[in-house]
Amino acid sequence: MANVTNELLLDILKQIQTDTSQLKADMRDIKVRMTATEEGIAGVNRRLDRVDDRLERLEHRVGPVEGCPRP
């Protein structure tokens, strides 16, 4: 079995610490991007809700139209 020295263990621990720091930074980036994506989807949903409201008002004004299926 290879002789494991304190210096070798210290080097390995430093590499693990470096890798962990990089993972933390990547995770922060992913969280920021995910938040931006969620906010974008929420904005699209708000716009769709407004379109739906406008469509309902138009349907109410026009009344039923022959040949158009009702949901």
Core attributes:
mainly alpha, about 70 residues, rod-shaped
In short:
80% of the residues lie in helices and 0% in strands. The relative contact order is 0.05. The chain is built from 1 helix and no strands.
Written overview of the protein:
- There is one protein chain.
- It contains one helix and no strands.
- Helix content is 80%, strand content 0%.
General shape? rod-shaped
| First and last CA, distance | 74 Å
What low-confidence regions span 5 or more consecutive residues with pLDDT below 50? none
Mean pLDDT across every amino acid position: 90
Instruction: Give me the secondary-structure category.
Output: mainly alpha
Proportion of strand residues:
under 5%
Succession of helices and strands = H
Q: Compute the gyration radius: what is it?
A: 29 Å
Tally of extended strands? 0
Instruction: Indicate the percent of residues in helices.
Output: over 70%
User: Helical element count?
Assistant: 1
Largest sheet: none
Kindly report the oligomeric state of this protein. Answer: single chain
Write the topology of this structure:
Elements lengths: L5 H57 L9
